[in-house]
Amino acid sequence: MFVRIVKMTFDASKIDLFLENFNTNKEKIRNFDGCRLLELYRDKNNPSTFFTYSYWVTEEHLETYRNSELFKLVWAKTKVFFIEKPEAWSVDKIESLL
């Protein structure tokens, strides 16, 4: 399983707009071919910082999503709310205990 983690810090006055955009598109992202899980987290110490975790079957599935019209539309609406440059990590899931 391939995991993509993205850290995003927003202008506090734009958080509701970000969440509205996320909520409008989360099912489409989650149901994109190859996406197995989508999670959104909010930092407890900095409420303007959010993280997305998305689980993909392969890196190619993520790249297909990143080149899709859906991603372009979601990202265009999201990036205008940033106050810091987003950070992203690509990791391989080694183990998970539930």
Give a description of the structure:
It is a single chain. This protein is α+β, with helices and mostly antiparallel strands and 98 residues long. 36% of the residues lie in helices and 31% in strands. The protein is built from three helices and four strands. A four-stranded antiparallel sheet has the order 2-3-1-4. Helix 1 runs antiparallel to helix 3. The longest helix has 16 residues, at 15-30. It is globular and about 35 Å long. The model has no long low-confidence stretch (mean pLDDT 97).
Topology (SSEs and partners):
Elements: E1 2-9, H1 15-30, E2 35-42, E3 49-56, H2 59-66, H3 69-79, E4 87-92
Antiparallel strand pairs: 1-3, 1-4, 2-3
Number of distinct helices? 3
Mean pLDDT: 97
Query: How many strands, what sense, and barrel or not for the largest sheet?
Result: 4 strands, antiparallel
Number of strands: 4
Strand order of the largest sheet: 2-3-1-4
The termini sit apart by 16 Å
Q: Bin the helical content.
A: 25-40%
List the helices and strands in order: EHEEHHE
Low-confidence stretches: none
From the spread of the alpha carbons, the general shape counts as globular
Structural class of the helices, strands and pairings?
alpha+beta
Percent strand equals 25-35%
Taking Cα atoms only, what radius of gyration do you get, to the nearest Å? 13 Å
How would you concisely characterize the structure shown here?
The protein is of the alpha+beta class and 98 residues long.
